[in-house]
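A quick aside before the break. I want you to see a complete sequence-to-structure record at least once, exactly as it would be stored in a machine-readable document. Don't worry about memorizing anything.
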Amino acid sequence: MATPRPPTRILIVKLSSLGDIVHALPVPASLRATFPQARLAWVVEEKWLPLVAHHPDLDQVFTVDSLGLRRRPHRWSALRADLRRLRAFQPEVALDLQGTVKSAAVARASGAPVRLGFSAAARRELAAGLAYTARIEPRSDHVVEQMLDLAEALGPLQRQLRFPFPIPASVQQDVDRWIAENQLGEFAFFSPGGGWASKRWPSDRYAVLAEMLQRQFGLAVVLNRGPDERDMDDAYRRANEIRARLFSGDVVHLAAILRRARLAVGADTGPLQLAAALEVPTVALFGPTNPARNRPYSPHCQVIRKTTATTYQRRDTYSPAMLAITPAEVAAACGHLLQALPAASPRPGLAT
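That is the input. The structure line, written in tokens, reads:
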């Protein structure tokens, strides 16, 4: 019986968002180790291009701007052009790591004759399966390893649990100047945001935590503020006179400041996943979502969760499980990491 020919053109479909793309970064590294002669490409939403634009194991990166269609319906012609460029890559295999109808449609539009996606129980939207030629049941718990399970449908995989995210030297220098100008010294990075209110921890509790970290460990605080998150910043300031330095910037600058943080604290949200990928110690606050699947993928992560009930239903109010977490518990977890790990130093991140 002839051995199947290894694929020579592989397309990764992972369109969004920050944390989900970070979790997928080991996939091209593993495919490159397994199929060194293959050409590897990734298709991503234009908004998230910086996350994969300089991945050292990718030959090409394609973008689509489906999000822009909501603002500018006339962008349909641009989307069609994006898909033409994607088809010109002529992938033999498309791996849909996202499992939504949109990502499955992009995989099918790529023209790949083999389209692999997750089984019904593992994918986000059931109808996405209609676009796949094979549906793979992952055997792992964590989403990072589940995506590698999907890639392994192509054959035995040399798993590379690396999260390459090159940071341009000029960006790091800009962030280092900002840190020096603000006389930060060692600092903790707080990420109070998140897509759903039910996953968040209240801002006034971050404020109490900031006082504890300053008093007990001498740490300053940098508070991440994403789009439309001014209300969280205002709530923090009402609860705490300690001035948190606000950070608001693109994902590359976010990575550059995270690299300098002594630790990062947040809920199940993208910046915390990026911190773990950059080897920053993290304290992850979990409520409705399952840390076995979604926790920051790092040995230097302390998870705090006060429930075993899991739901991915989006709620617009704080969940009781998140409200059950106290600042004292979080401060204790921070202290454990600070004592267990050496002082902050420049962490891995290739300059471009």
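Two observations worth writing down. The chain is about 35% helix and 15% strand. The chain has two domains: 9-154, 169-340. We'll return to this after the break.
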